[in-house]
Specification:
The complex is a heterotrimer of chains A (250), B (288) and C (519).
Chain A lengths: L4 H6 L2 H19 L21 H12 L14 H7 L34 H9 L1 H4 L21 H10 L6 H5 L1 H8 L7 H8 L17 H11 L6 H4 L13
Chain B lengths: L13 E6 L2 E4 L5 H20 L18 H25 L2 H6 L1 H18 L1 H4 L23 H10 L23 H13 L10 H11 L1 H4 L25 H9 L10 H4 L1 H12 L7
Antiparallel strand pairs in B: 1-2
Helix pairs in contact in B: 2-12, 4-12, 6-12, 7-8, 7-10
Chain C lengths: L37 H19 L16 E4 L4 E4 L2 E3 L4 H22 L2 H6 L1 H17 L2 H9 L4 H26 L5 H10 L4 H21 L1 H7 L2 H8 L6 E4 L1 H4 L6 H6 L12 H5 L19 H13 L6 E4 L1 H11 L34 H23 L3 E7 L6 E2 L5 E11 L5 E7 L6 E5 L9 E6 L4 E10 L8 E9 L6 E9 L6
Antiparallel strand pairs in C: 1-2, 2-3, 4-5, 6-8, 7-8, 8-12, 9-11, 9-13, 10-12, 13-14
Helix pairs in contact in C: 1-4, 2-16, 4-6, 4-8, 6-8
Classes of the chains: A mainly alpha (250), B mainly alpha (288), C alpha+beta (519).
């Protein structure tokens, strides 16, 4: 047997392993790597806003309670999805989601555009006991959220953590995180003005759980649910949307 | 390899590999397999030309067919719209009353409205449209703001006490805790209950009638049959949104709860509103 | 070590390279010779009848009035109806078709247990079409010997011409076979025109193409291989045969020992049987087997070997029936006579009297032998299913009423305190004529009245509903009842639908729900 290059390669454990890794990477290099450089992977939209500290806290509760196990946040480019839930999701809409919560399991409905669809009161009633408003629901009750105060002291750190993975929170936002959370759930309070100032006029300031005096986890979760699909209007502008954008000024 | 090892039994060359005396035959792939494999390669050549395929530095090839999943869904939706186009155009052109009079159009509008209802309305009114306390039952023949087709359409389009809509149905019942003393409230509550059933303390009915005439008749009418212009409920019937006994009525007199409903025009559009109106009207309580 | 210690065995490796046979064997062609005789005659008749039914039935007309097709046998997939002369089957009545299939199944048991694989030999489409293809082949290529010669001959223009014409003729038959199939699924005359002008549905062309291919391949090319390798039925049938079933049997108790030189053998005093080893039975067999090897899986009992053998026996002046339809019981009994219960080899003299005629002790077939518990049970079950279907068909309803109570809400309280329930009422008019039926609430539900949604009349006790021919009509009905007449949370009442012209009546007992506490 003469030593062909193939034979040599086959007989070198390290070399052959490297060759395997190189060969197996081709798929990933071709299919995934270019997404990082291709411009329209993530749409470029101007009106994309950040999660407020309260919404971010709500998002954490959403993750903590495992809501993603039954609810997706990803409206697919399928007629059925679009007709039921609204315009299909764009990548930019989860630009600030770390980690993203697209999901693939829909025991409950998709929540990507739940924001603004129902009233805060409905959400509180529904989370407290889903069967009160949707008799056929098999969702668990989350009534303790309304009585559990939100840990406000964590918020600056949470924002900071988000900043390290690329969410452009400013120092001012981080410094005021706890106050902003309190302000967003207490309309007409001293702190509420700062929220709109820092996060934009579109920010929804409301006593989400019906009580303005203290900030509960219910406030946070409802604030988060009410902002889903509301961070940008991009999906309504350049997609095949059968629905009109819900216009709060109408 | 210079020398080929030929297997004695089969007469086939081996790969030259040997493990404990076992050699691997170097049989060629079955021809059908090889040709299928070549066919897939040829297929892929056409595919990468026809469909989006090659990643470039900041973009990707789009393919000559111009396919995209977003384009597909747009096509699907357009096709669905076109298929319904004639009906939706007819629904758009006609009044809800005319739609209800046309057998075919009615069945289509009611089906379409039923679908919209399941997505948008069941959260408050329930999947059977039977409502619950504070959320009206849409099956019955009692209407706060009117049960004629155009009245239902108006309510759906502009909502009730929805501040962001100029044409929203609006009215306000004052909190009578500030106006009446508790004895008067007890009297008028008993009177209201007496209009539709037996009361606990009949002696309160007569004085209650006076209180009613002075404070309530302006909106609810002298006969307490309500006023749909103002959304003032009929107090003489068997249906009470917030409870029918003296205590519930008294609570309502002291600090009235008044339902609100969003305006759906902006979200759903005129045609879907008409379909919804036809659906709600057909639930059994629609007025002529 | 000494050489004589080693015993050398006379062994050869079965699977050595030199001995190993390929797992795949090429089909060896079969050239069946034309047979003639009673069974061949019977097979011609069966072939004419079965092909006649297949090709002609879709063209029979049957007037059903203006609202239904006038084709006697029609499987209308698009409208989900099956028409069979005066019978119209709706999808929910498929039980009748299932009943027919059950009858067909039991019928096959019955036939198989009495006359063996008669289905295979006479009526199976594979047999009928192979027979037809063989007729064509014989027409162009001649009988067995000519065909063997042609097949062996080198390719020449004549051979090519004959082969091309033969295959084209087969293809024509195949196209006609596939073509006839689609006429069962649409109006035949219309479809025929559409098909030729290219206006028929794609599925029609696809079906014809597939059936043409299968007919050509199965009937022309594969033939007996379909029965031997593809069809599960021979295996199942073999399990249903018993010792009293008729099968095509070579009666070796009179045939053996066979001899080609009967006279010479007789002259030497050797005992010879009736079989002269002329191989006529082998030559006619479409399955390519030798029936003298005994009953075998491949045999479809087409009985052509009986015809061939009887012909030879007749010419030799011997009795017919060397190969015959016979039961295993009779065969065994005769075999016992011919071999003295197995104590000697077959001795033809034992079954004959000294004058040469058959011994009286021989068992003969008699129809009575087929009458046994098994056939009675099969026949009983078969006719029971048949009678049940016929009775059910004769008495079935052509007006059906179904009522679905609204699940949500189960009841509605009206402003005057009355209770209302909603129902979806489905009226099924199963005849191809329009009719008007009267829907009413039965009298026992006092104080109740109904309103049909979209109808101008309200709170009536009965209402007329116009039904389209052969269609389902769904209406929404609201029933209201005053609280005074209601007892408890639920009570039953009956919707009655009647056709005043025919007197047909359908009813449905529905439930009326009410809240626990009524004012």
């Amino acid at each position: 047997m003469t030593d062909t290059p193939h034979r040599k390669l086959e007989r070198s454990a390290t070399g052959f392993m490297l060759a395997i890794v190189a060969a197996a990477s081709v798929g990933g290099l071709v299919e995934i790597a270019p997404l990082f450089t291709i411009d329209d992977t993530v749409e470029n939209v101007k009106d994309m806003r950040l999660y407020t500290p309260l919404e971010l806290a709500g998002r954490d509760i959403y993750v903590r309670e495992g809501c993603y196990a039954c609810h997706s946040q990803m409206i697919r480019t399928l007629r059925d999805d679009v007709e039921r839930y609204g315009p299909y999701s764009l990548a930019v809409e989860s630009k600030y989601d770390h980690p993203m919560l697209w999901g693939s399991k829909r025991t409950g409905p998709d929540l990507a555009r739940i924001g603004g669809k129902y009233s805060d009161f409905w959400h509180v009633a529904h989370l407290s006991n889903p069967r009160d408003v949707v008799p056929e629901s098999n969702m668990p009750s989350y009534r303790w959220l309304a009585t559990t105060p939100l840990k406000l002291s964590n918020l600056p750190l949470m924002l900071k953590a988000q900043r390290t993975v690329g969410v452009p929170y400013t120092d001012e936002m981080i410094a005021n995180a706890s106050a902003d959370a309190r302000g967003q759930s207490a309309p007409d309070s001293e702190q509420s003005a700062g929220v709109s100032e820092r996060y934009g006029e579109a920010t929804q300031v409301s006593a989400f759980d019906g009580v303005a005096t203290n900030v509960t986890e219910m406030d946070a979760l409802v604030a988060y649910l009410q902002v889903l699909g509301q961070l940008t209007k991009a999906a309504y502008e350049n997609t095949a949307a059968p629905e009109k954008m819900p216009d709060p000024n109408n | 390899m210079s020398e080929k090892h030929i297997d004695e039994v089969s007469g086939v060359a081996t790969t030259g590999h040997e493990w404990d005396g076992i050699r691997e035959l170097d049989n060629p792939m079955p021809r059908w397999w090889v040709w299928t494999f070549y066919a897939t390669i040829i297929w892929s050549l056409g595919y990468v030309i026809a469909y989006p395929a090659w990643p470039l530095l900041t973009s990707a090839t789009q393919g000559v067919l111009g396919y995209s999943s977003r384009g597909e869904v747009r096509k699907d939706l357009t096709a669905a719209d076109d298929a319904m186009g004639a009906y939706r155009a007819a629904i758009k052109d006609k009044s809800v009353e005319a739609i209800l009079a046309d057998d075919q159009l009615r069945s289509i509008a009611v089906a379409a409205g039923g679908a919209s209802f399941k997505v948008n309305c069941v959260q408050c009114h329930g999947s059977g449209a039977a409502g619950s306390q504070g959320f009206p039952n849409l099956n019955d023949d009692d209407w706060l703001w009117g049960g004629k087709p155009d009245q239902i359409q108006q309510t759906l389009a502009h909502g009730i006490r929805f501040t962001k809509d100029d044409q929203t149905r609006d009215s306000l019942m004052p909190a009578f805790a500030d106006v009446l003393d508790s004895a008067q409230i007890a009297q008028v509550s008993t009177y209201v209950v007496s209009l539709s059933g037996p009361v606990k303390n009949a002696s309160l009915v007569e004085p209650g009638k006076t209180v009613f005439a002075e404070n309530c008749a302006a909106c609810h009418g002298d006969d307490a049959k309500g006023n749909k212009e103002l959304g003032a409920p009929n107090l003489t019937d068997a249906i009470a949104l917030y409870g029918a006994d003296e205590a519930a009525i008294a609570t309502q007199v002291r600090a009235p709860r008044m339902g609100a409903m969003p305006a759906w025009n902006a979200r759903l559009g005129d045609t879907a509103i008409k379909e919804l109106a036809a659906f709600v009207h057909s639930l059994g309580g629609g007025e002529k | 070590m000494q050489d004589q210690d080693v015993t050398r065995l006379d062994a050869v490796a079965t699977n050595s390279a030199a001995n190993r046979q390929p797992l795949y064997a090429r089909r060896k062609k079969i050239f069946p010779k034309r047979a003639s005789g009673a069974f061949r005659q019977f097979k011609w008749i069966v072939m004419a009848i079965t092909l006649g039914i297949y090709y002609l039935v879709p063209w029979i007309r049957w007037d059903r009035g203006p609202f239904a097709p006038d084709q006697a046998v029609l499987i209308d997939m698009a409208n989900r109806r099956f028409y069979f002369f005066f019978i119209e089957i709706w999808p929910q009545e498929f039980i009748y078709v299932a009943g027919l299939l059950v009858m067909a199944g039991i019928g096959l048991f019955l036939v198989t247990s009495t006359v063996g694989r008669a289905w295979c030999g006479y009526t199976c489409p594979q047999t009928v079409w192979v027979d037809l293809f063989l007729v064509i082949e014989r027409f162009f290529e001649g009988d067995r010997n000519a065909r063997i010669k042609l097949d062996a001959a080198p390719w020449s223009f004549t051979k090519l011409r004959i082969r091309v014409i033969k295959h084209l003729s087969w293809l024509v038959v195949a196209v006609l076979t596939g073509g006839a199939w689609i006429f069962y699924f649409a109006d035949a005359p219309t479809l025929a025109v559409d098909f030729v002008t290219g206006n028929a549905a794609f599925i029609a062309y696809a079906t014809v193409a597939v059936l043409t291919a299968t007919t050509y391949v199965f009937g022309g090319l594969m033939r007996e291989q379909v029965c031997t390798y593809m069809c599960p039925w021979p295996r199942i049938q073999a399990a249903m045969l018993d010792e009293t079933s008729l099968t095509v049997t070579y009666n070796d108790w009179r045939g053996e020992p066979r001899s080609r030189h009967t006279k010479k053998a007789a002259a030497t005093g050797a005992s010879v049987g009736d079989c002269v080893d002329c191989n006529a039975c082998v030559a006619v067999c479409p399955m390519g087997i030798d029936i003298r090897d005994g009953q075998q899986l491949e045999c479809i009992t087409c009985a052509l070997c009986i015809d061939a053998c009887d012909d030879v026996m007749g010419r030799l002046g011997k009795e017919h029936g060397l190969i015959s339809y016979s039961t295993l019981n009779d065969y065994d009994a005769n075999m016992a006579i011919a071999t003295r219960s197995g104590s000697c080899s077959i001795t033809p003299e034992l079954v004959r009297k000294p004058d040469g005629t058959f011994s009286d002790k021989l068992a003969h077939f008699h129809v009575r032998k087929l009458l046994r518990p098994r056939t009675f049970i099969y026949f009983g079950a078969w006719s029971a299913v048949g009678v049940s279907i016929a009775f059910a068909l004769a008495t079935r309803d052509r007006l059906e009423l179904n009522v679905l109570h609204d699940r949500n809400p189960q009841f509605v309280i009206l402003s005057d305190g009355a209770v209302r329930n909603g129902y979806t009422v489905k009226l099924l008019n199963m005849v191809p004529q329009p009719r008007t039926v009267v829907l009413k609430l039965d009298e026992s539900f006092e104080g109740a009245s109904m309103t049909v949604a979209g109808d101008d009349t309200a709170n009536v006790l009965e209402t007329e509903v116009v039904l389209e021919p052969d269609r389902l009509k769904t209406i929404k009905v609201f029933v209201r009842a005053d609280p005074e007449v209601l007892s408890g949370t639920s009570q039953s009442f009956t919707f009655v639908a009647t056709d005043p012209t025919t007197g047909e009546r359908a009813d449905y007992t529905a439930t009326f729900n009410a809240p626990e506490k009524l004012k």
